[in-house]
Amino acid sequence: MIMSRTIIEREPAHYRVFDHTADLGVEIYGRDEADLFKNAALALADILIDRSRVEGNESKEIVAEGNDREELFVNFLREIVALFNGDGWLVKGCMIHSVDKTHLHATVTGEPFARERHTVEAEIKAVTYHHVEVRSTPGGWVGRVVCDV
């Protein structure tokens, strides 16, 4: 289990991991809504693997939808986890092309998992709706999600 800690990436991907019963919680920060979603994708990638060892030579498009921002946030992060769990594909970077309350279009860069270069840091089985939150603050945006590990 990952212990509570604050992680600040070299990029403006700011997040904090916290323990939640048998699950793993992540609180993510962004300057604006697009930055929040980008940072959330990179936070999950960091939790799954050592992202510094991933090359960003390939790209994949992601389109996510939801009935509101919270559902959109969960659905987008489920796409990031599905790339890893379903396709064995690792995320290095993320660009949000457009995001509103119910729709997101993004491109992620990365590469397929290579056992000789990559090490799995943690396994995320699912992104849940438990305590999900996405909100604007005076200083930017904050998102909170709990993952089943």
Q: Summarize the helix and strand pattern as letters.
A: EEEHEHEEEE
Range of helix content: 10-25%
- Structural class per helix/strand content? alpha+beta
**Gap from first CA to last CA:** 8 Å
Number of helical regions: 2
DSSP strand tally: 8
* Percentage of residues in strands: over 45%
In quaternary terms, these chains amount to single chain
**What about the largest sheet?**
5 strands, antiparallel
Sequence stretches where pLDDT stays below 50 over 5 or more residues: 1-13
Structure, described:
The longest helix is centred in the middle third of the chain and has 19 residues, at 69-87. The protein starts with a strand and ends with a strand. The chain is an alpha+beta fold. Strand 1 and strand 2 form a beta hairpin. It has 2 helices and 8 strands; from the N terminus they run βββαβαββββ. Helix 1 (33-48) packs parallel to helix 2. The strands form 2 sheets. It has a 5-stranded antiparallel sheet. Strands 4-6-5 form a 3-stranded antiparallel sheet, covered by helices on one side. 23% of the residues lie in helices and 46% in strands. It has helices at residues 33-48, 69-87, and strands at 5-8, 14-20, 23-30, 58-65, 89-99, 103-112, 126-137, 140-148.
